Request: fold
Amino acid sequence: MKKTSPLLLLAAMAFAPAAFSAPVGTLSVHVLNQQTGLPGQDVTVMLEKQQQDKWTQVASGKTDHDGRIKSLYPENQDMQPGVYKVTFKTSEYFKAQKQDSFFPEVPVLFTVTATNEKLHIPLLLSQYGYSTYKGS
Reply:
């Protein structure tokens, strides 16, 4: 039986935290404009975590040409269990489309039950309505 070098074991332990940080794509979002059938590009999205009685911003971004943010949660942090909120800034998006909209933003609250749980939140959007669900 081969013995493991203490130096090798120490080196492996030094890099362990990086192996357990939030993987790319831990939390992704997608916006689809139901009226046009096209991706909702350049939609600002904010991510917040509930801390007792207040919300703390974790990250923000804009959807790409395909209406997606593939990795909204910061890669250098673990996504811990708790209550989170993703807010889609729909008013800005519809103003850029030169359209009115009833909802200035769409907040989606959700619960993370396991550290670094892989989650996807799609938003099907129109000027006067929306739907969302837990995607995969």
Q: What stands out?
A: The CA atoms of residues 94 and 100 lie 6 Å apart. The first strand starts at residue 27 and ends at 33.
